[in-house]
Amino acid sequence: MTPAAYAELNLGALQHNLDKVRGCAPDAKVMAVIKANGYGHGLIRMAEALKQADAFAVARVDEGIRLRNAGLGHRIAVLEGFTCAEELEKLQYYQLDAVVHCLSQLDIFDAIAGQPIAAWLKLDTGMNRLGFKAEAFNAVYQRLSQCAVIKQPINLMTHFANADDISDDKTLKQISLFQQTVAGLPGERSLANSAAILAWESSLSDWVRPGIMLYGISPFPDATGQQLGLKPVMSLHSRLIAVKPIEAGDTVGYGGSWTCKKSTMLGVVAIGYGDGYPRYAKIGTPVLINGQRVPLIGRVSMDMMTVDLGLDTEAKPGDPVTLWGDDLPVEEIALCADTIPYTLVCGVTQRVRLVEKTA
Ligand SMILES: *Cc1c(COP(=O)(O)O)cnc(C)c1O
Which of 14, 30, 31, 33 has most ligand 1 atoms within 8 Å of its beta carbon, as the pocket-test mutant? Predict the structure, then answer.
């Protein structure tokens, strides 16, 4: 019998998706983004499987340290940089690249000695999250280029706000503001996330930073990874643990949010929001049982969810269930739960076993 909730990881698909990145950006080096536990796929496991990437990017210092402790010698950029001297010292000790995005970081650099580290100076071209505005950029660049603990030349980066919307020319504006601002400066450049790699060729530069597409998932709201030539890495599975008849008028689950209209067979699946299945998945969200799509009914609870198997079902307790994966795109489930697929894969919780798919 299959175990209860587990996520199967297809590392062959991961390799395929990395090849796809290289095909889209043949002249760029690839910084594989594996923040947030490798988008829920396992930080170390993804790093090991993506050894052919040229570098890794994580969000936090601790994530970089975990990679070093696992023996990974790659260049690793910490996208949120550091906020205090202790964190900067860790970046130095573990030789992690710092993203520099805020004035307060410059004072910390000035106050510290020791080993030089590589820095990515971040220009805010319109995302208005991290980074220096264009007007401030040159002064910051000059200050950093005098800094003894920063390896020269300084690397240059920005991040897109709307790259997943191919009808929005904001991305082109961001690209041109970046190019104007960094013109003539030495140092490598990095702009593109997955959506830009796939849709905005002029954003490609020395380094690309793919995240979601490596996991086989579309960054665009109106496409699946499969439609873009990607292969999903994660499939989420569980099993049926009960099958029973219900009659017209019966309500199902907490709040009785679903009422049975005519007799049918109810199936109970051992997965819920405690595993990361979205509680806001709507009634009718497809679930795959024995290769057949059946609709979710009632509210998703912590450990279980319920489906309408239909009167003629042959499904029985123990049968395997797929919540998303090869034949049920996670992008489709995200639409049914009013969210984006990023949140679904990142939200898979610790109790879900991550197992590698054996060919
Ligand atoms: C998360 C992130 C990425 C990767 O984005 P995807 O949409 O997953 O490709 C790239 N750059 C930065 C700065 C990020 O925060």
Answer: 33
Whether the full predicted model's pTM is greater than 0.85, yes or no, is yes
Q: Are 31 and 55 in contact (CB under 8 A)?
A: yes
pLDDT digits (tens, 9 = 90+) for 301-349: 999 999 999 999 999 999 999 999 999 999 999 999 999 999 999 999 9
What residue ranges in 159-249 does DSSP mark as E strands? 189-190, 207-208, 234-246
DSSP bridge pairs for 321: 238, 289
CATH fold group of domain 11-227: TIM Barrel (3.20.20)
**What does the pLDDT look like over 114-158, one tens digit per residue?**
999 999 999 999 999 999 999 999 999 999 999 999 999 999 999
Q: Which CATH class is domain 234-356?
A: mainly beta
Classify burial at 295, counting beta carbons within 10 Å of its beta carbon; exposed 0-12, middle 13-18, buried 19 or more.
middle
Q: How is residue 259 annotated by DSSP?
A: E
CA of 196: how far to CAs of 164, 167, 191, 206, in Å?
Answer: 7, 13, 8, 14
Domain boundaries, the chain: 11-227, 234-356
Find, among 180, 213, 208, 217, the residue nearest to 325 by Cα.
217
- In short, whether 232's Cβ falls inside 6 Å of ligand 1 is no
Residue among 159, 197, 344 whose CB has most ligand 1 atoms within 8 A, to mutate? 159
Q: DSSP characters for 239-253?
A: EEEEEEEE-TT-EES
Whether the CB of 33 sits within 6 Å of ligand 1: yes
Residue closest to 123 by CA, chosen among 188, 63, 191, 61 = 191
